[in-house]
Amino acid sequence: MKYIIGLGNIGKQYDQTRHNIGFMAVDAFAVAHQVSFTPSKQFALTAKVVVDGEQVMLVKPTTYMNDSGKAVRAILDYYGGDINQDVMILVDDMDLPFGKLRFRAKGSAGGHNGLKSIIAYTNSQTFLRLKFGLGHPDHDKQVVINYVLGQFTATESQDVAHMLDNSTKAITAWIQGATMAQLSNQYNG
Fold first, then answer.
1. Is the CB of residue 43 less than 8 Å from the CB of residue 63?
2. From CA 168, how far away is CA 46, in angstroms rounded?
3. pTM, to two decimals
4. What is the pLDDT of residue 107?
5. Virtual CA dihedral for 27, 70, 94, 96, nearest 10 degrees?
6. pLDDT per residue over 57-114, tens digit each?
7. Does the pLDDT of residue 139 top 80, yes or no?
8. Is 19 a catalytic residue?
9. Which of 176, 18, 179 is nearest to 93 (CA)?
10. Strand ranges in the chain using DSSP code E only, listed in sequence order
11. Coil, helix or strand for 39?
């Protein structure tokens, strides 16, 4: 089974915020495949779909961003799977220009608390990430917090729709066996 895990925060106040683009991307994939999420005992909302014969679980942790690893660990422990082979994490990245996508096969958390949690719970830094560029507003901590927890502007929404459409295509390509090089060449901006 493959796992597509979008990172975000649960709650209406976080819907459609920049930090929740991982949730938005996994939701877009679910809509494209006409599946809906249900609560699981593994600290997540999950949905299952079959894509070209491959079983895929879509996951939205309900632990809040900073404890995402708890859900990832629980899902893999219960259903089986290898964090380094079977998982794609969908995550926001302020160090990427706004509107860009980037595949990364390994690396540190880069200051992202959701990734820090996954690394801590899985003891791995070599899992696949699909990063969504948010751009960086400033280096003042409060400005950054307000930015990532803020909603997309009307102008940004068109770029977001394009990112989500491309992410659905990229996720499908990964499920179908595209290599990291192929994914990077086609989707990295």
1. yes
2. 17
3. 0.96
4. 94
5. -70
6. 999 999 999 999 999 999 999 999 999 999 999 999 999 999 999 999 999 999 899 9
7. no
8. yes
9. 18
10. 2-6, 38-40, 44-51, 54-61, 87-93, 101-104, 128-133
11. strand
